[in-house]
């Protein structure tokens, strides 16, 4: 198990300055997370509400839990006391509900708008057209308990680096448009581009990512 701490330390040492690592711990046991924790890492990503809540109750309080999977509206209330950042805001309805629930418990929560540029129709997120409608609607300035910090996206799952890079550049372009919309607002800066996983994070960084979500390279294959 000590190898997990060694892997995470090696990855963090290799990342350029300013790039944040989210260690994707979904489907892995608390013992594995504690190995990464022992190396000094504190930011972990989960994709299931019940799993995040159970781990948050069991593991140290200074862990920052990032929710990176599709968040069902009926699970928002459960994760809200524990989550630091939600990467997967993929609809206006979910955005408004997260704001309502955060306000209800007296919290302010960071979120990322999930964008969908990949060729797989099964992936979630705002298409470029939907993203344009959302950012021009004025809703982002109405949120009282949510800080929109940037975007999250995934590239197409293909063996074509040119296509993957094009997807990443489109995500970066959508982020730039979001910055333009939010630059005159008060509060936390819009400063996060979450893209890149174990197999493509180096290319994602080249295309502008400053937050990568890495699981398999750290923890090995998932334990279902």
TrEMBL record:
Q: Is Protein transport one of the keywords UniProt gives this record?
A: no
SUPFAM superfamilies with a match to the protein in the record: PLP-binding barrel (SSF51419)
Task: Check the record and name the InterPro entries matching this protein.
Answer: Ala_racemase_N, PLP-binding_barrel, PyrdxlP_homeostasis
Q: Does the keyword Cell membrane apply?
A: no
Every Alanine racemase N-terminal domain range: 6-222
Q: Which UniProt keywords apply?
A: Pyridoxal phosphate
Q: Which residues are recorded as modified (N6-(pyridoxal phosphate)lysine)?
A: 26
One Pfam family per UniProt = Ala_racemase_N
Taxonomy, superkingdom = Bacteria
UniProt-listed PROSITE patterns = UPF0001
Q: Which family does it belong to?
A: Belongs to the pyridoxal phosphate-binding protein YggS/PROSC family.
HAMAP family xref list: PLP_homeostasis
Q: What does this chain do?
A: Pyridoxal 5'-phosphate (PLP)-binding protein, which is involved in PLP homeostasis.
Supply the name of the protein.
Pyridoxal phosphate homeostasis protein
Q: Which organism is it from?
A: Heminiphilus faecis
Recall the taxonomic lineage recorded for the source organism. Answer: Bacteria, Pseudomonadati, Bacteroidota, Bacteroidia, Bacteroidales
